[in-house]
Known about the structure:
Elements: H1 3-15, E1 19-21, H2 22-29, H3 33-42, E2 56-58, H4 59-73, H5 78-102, E3 105-109, E4 112-119, E5 126-132, E6 137-143
Antiparallel strand pairs: 1-2, 3-4, 4-5, 5-6
Helix pairs in contact: 4-5
InterPro entries: DNA-bd_dom_put_sf, MerR-type_HTH_dom, MerR_fam
Domain HTH merR-type: 19-88
Keywords: DNA-binding, Repressor, Transcription, Transcription regulation
Amino acid sequence: MNTEEHNAFATFSKKVNWHLGIGDVSAATGVSQSQLRYWEQKGYITSEKEKGQNRKYSYETLIRVFIINNYIKQGFTLTAAVKKAAAHRETMELLKRSMVDRFQGIDEIDGYPAINLGFVDGQQTEVLYLVVKEDRTDVKIVKQA
């Protein structure tokens, strides 16, 4: 997906009303509804709530709840888990942005899928690939003919 396609999908995603009720988020993450309300009260998560309607959570919030809860299960306090989740989100945003900027397609090298991240030199003779294997990802620079 190139940058233009990514931006188009992001715009589309914002227009589509993909929301879950508090019970759905609780069932999907294992976090109780009372905990979700508490987290929202503390400002750790947000919901949309119109007059006379139940809370509705975005898929982004669902993922945030899952990540926070995962850190809590690892032994972190709620405050520390929220901070780690925020750092995780920043890292993922940087990875996503850099991959969208560099992504040139998927090829095959030695029978494995290889993510083409484009030229690495000014003369455009060497291409950087991430070769995805079963147990690891290798970095490979391939000279172009």
